[in-house]
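Researcher: Please generate the 3D structure of the following complex. Treat every line as part of one assembly.
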Amino acid sequence: MHAPDGFLTAGTALATGVIATGGVAVALRRSGEELSDKQVPLAGLAAAFVFAGQMVNFPVAAGTTGHLLGGALAAVLLGPSVGALVVTVVVVVQALVFADGGLTALGYNTLNMALVTAFGGWAVFRLGRRLLPATRTGVVIAAAVAAFASVVLSAVAFSIEWLLGASAAVPFDRVFGAMVGVHVLIGVGEAIITGLVVGSVLATRADLVRGAADLTVTAPGTRRGIRPVLVVGILAALVVAAGVAQFAVSDPDGLERVAEDEGFAGAAEPHAFESALFADYATAGVASESVSLAIAGISGTLLTLVVGSGILLAVRRRPEQPDADRRTTSVV
Amino acid sequence: MTGPRDDVPALVVEDLAFTYPDGSEALRGLDLRVARGERVAVLGPNGAGKTTLALHLNGIHRATRGRVEVAGLELEDATLREVRRRVGMVFQDPDDQLFMPTVREDVAFGPANLGLAGDELLERVAAALAAVDATHLAGRAPHHLSGGERRRVAVATVLAMRPDVLVLDEPTSGLDPASRRELVQVLAALPVTQLLITHDLSFALELCPRSVVIGGGRVVGDGPTAQLLLDEQLLAANRLELPYGFDPRTVAPASPRG
Amino acid sequence: MGAGHAHALYVHEHSPVHRLAPHVKIVAAFVFVFAVAVTPREAVWAFGIDLVAIATVIRIARVPYRFVLLRMAVILPFLVAALLLPLVASGPQVVVFGVGLATEGLWGAWNVVAKAGIGSATSITLAATTEVPRLLRGLDRLRVPPVLTQIATFMVRYLEVVAGELSRQRTAMVARGHDPRWLWQVRPIAASLGTVFVRSYERGERVHAAMLARGYERTMPVLEPVVRVEADWWRASLLPALGVTLAVVALVVTP
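Model: Done. Output below.
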């Protein structure tokens, strides 16, 4: 998942860098008060935990192994904003200190591995909590489903970035099929591990599971409807879907067409601009084109819906955070 | 040392009580007085409330009842900062204490928080490291030090704040005999009031003329260390045991000033 | 892919590259890698010069080439994927696009190999010549929000401690005959992760207590005086300036 330099176009790298910076800014803002004091060393230790946790191999089948990605786990344990920041720090340090993942790839690596997994995972987790009974088992299952979804969403995000800025001629549906197919399997492992880890923390220090704060603290009336979030999320997703359609549905050279219409096709370097944003060959392959675009549209909409909901859930003001009530001292 | 007059006790703890948020009562009315320059061992089994007491001395825990006074200064919100300077806490696990990237930065962390900078700060750091015989470790990363080195550097991090009272929580745990001896030498040579929290009875006898025994969140024994260690009933009641073959009567305690 | 590596890449040496101010080095590495990324893939000659340039920097830094090459193994899975591009890119589409598409795939593979290779060599050089605390201070000077660099500082400090706890638990499990081969045997590993999370959290609380005990009041003290680094900027700009020049020339001459 730590993509190196050159996998996507420089323009995509820049664009995802801007989006990722925005996402980190949202997380920083939301977690500002929490992180101002004692949470900073705590977040550092949590980051060390996620980093070290990624190095633990677990068996998958017949001796093959996988490892944890940890975005959804961090969100469930620490809350979406702190979780997103913690995994962001892990990804950035891996690139800078351990040369794992390219420097220009930091934008999409942070976006896919930290922000999409933490915020997307959180949205699915909250939905799961809403549908499942408010018990430990409910929390564990919701965490597992969220972990599965976070990995698949991450793969979807990469596929869509490929659609927008592929560095080579592979049709979108193939990339999508390969990425999502592989990550469905990885997601099963992530789900099981995440669920079990959350379960084991719940058994010893339930107060440390942010996503289960309502189980340990009686905070009446803090659960507000998820409906407004869904409405806003669907609206945002529709906008994205419309955008994708605008660019892509007409023909494989959608952007070129737009550029022509707008009258800057004859400008100095239309090619550089075009490959920076919309690599036209990503939708190449006439036979599969319509399927490709349908998948792109649907998955893009879904991705935006879920991640957007996660961010909205994260930034929404909650009355009386249970933080002050949580048992904060453990030094005995 | 600069500071208050000699007749003001270094430490006064009166009727201290503390209950953890989960309801467990760690301290139930504890009284303790330590004179300036004294070196006192705080003995007791695991869970007696020793560490909880330590965390009250510089206001990391705030008492449910009772009061703490450090060198004549009452611990309260307004004096928290000064009390934390006066009480140097050396925590049980040096890994918790040494959190900065290098030893030098870690030793500088405290005095820098006090507002020191530049050459003054560097001198403080150098003096503190020299006092624990760790000058050569300044540039190293804490996680690359041996257990004994870590412990001595942890002592330096609080010495750099020129404390009036040094509180060490289980300083000998996990040390090999040579590191333990080096630590004894370093502590014996430090001219500062010390509270050594331990269940290592021979360590207590070696360094501390006086000991207090804590059990059930109260002081249950207070007196000359050699005398307390002969009180079999008191030791047994508090799960304290002398090392095999160790007889306090045949051991000459180190003099208080090393 | 690519599980994290716990060993920092720093190679202890005294070289002009090691001595450069960290924030200057970070900016230089980013600009250079970005210039390489925008260089059109058809400009093979430009990548050749980029490669010679970064190899020269590695030589000046006295970092062994062997070390850099071995560490570049993290990009291998991606290179393998890239080498599949010509195959994946062919198939039914070949009928429509003819030979042109196969060439596309080859160019695509070359593009990833060249940019990922030079990019990772650059990252490795940066990490190998800059101690971790200096790297993080460099980020501070580049105005990265202090909360992030502080989290990173604590993370780097405690990474070995936490990883050590995990590996000791793993050893203890193996010592008692634990040899899982299937996903449904994963529970003990997850339990150990849960335990280590709780321990990490509690350690975080103790670290915070230790910080409070030494007068911490929400900001980390700045211990290093800010030094003037104009000369460093000039020296460090050589590599990115070359990269940018090559990229611009290549963009102009490539049709």
